[in-house]
Write a structure and sequence with these properties.
Elements (H helix, E strand, L loop, with lengths): L17 H22 L2 H8 L3 H7 L3 H15 L8 H19 L2 H8 L5 H29 L8 H18 L7 H12 L6
Helix pairs in contact: 1-2, 1-4, 1-5, 2-3, 4-7, 5-7, 5-9, 7-8, 8-9
Length: 199
Amino acid sequence: MTAVQRPANRGRGRPRSTEHDDAILDAAVSLMREVGYARMSMEAVAAAAGVSKPTLYLRYAGKAELVVAAHERVRVGDAPAPTGDLRADLVAQLRHLHDVFARLGMSVIGVCLTEEESLPDLIAALRARSLEPGRQMMRDAIARAVHQGALSDGADAETAIEMAIGAYYARYLAGRPFDQGWPERVADATLRALGAPPA
């Protein structure tokens, strides 16, 4: 399988239609949620987006590249802006994480767990362009809190991030609903793990 890369402008013809770009990614997001990664096809995306298959393939060489772009758009492009308040930022990131998988479904995460050997480029691209940027947003929020003196220099950011994100997967796999106060409870537990003083 060839490496999954960002789509590039090809040639010097007319500029690509941003409306087509948006329609394609919107269709990919919708189909990911409805049928999952395995059953989603490039033909179905083109039909749902109202574009021709050549128009779709001009932008994305295959399904893996398209799915990575769709994940990147939702996970990174729609991410909440930092506020400088660590608790508020953690709560916002956890709500956003829930929204991402509510919109995209969990099928690609299942692919990550079962098909890493056969789809290494897809997994690597998802990690680099969607999963890791999400972790970096939390990492930056914790670093700001350390700089502001709200946390000690010895705060274990990586473990805290894994706790916060892992709490989502654990609850999802257990089949438990995400009640309204769930992000706040996880954020507070994460802050306690980081050694933040009680509010």
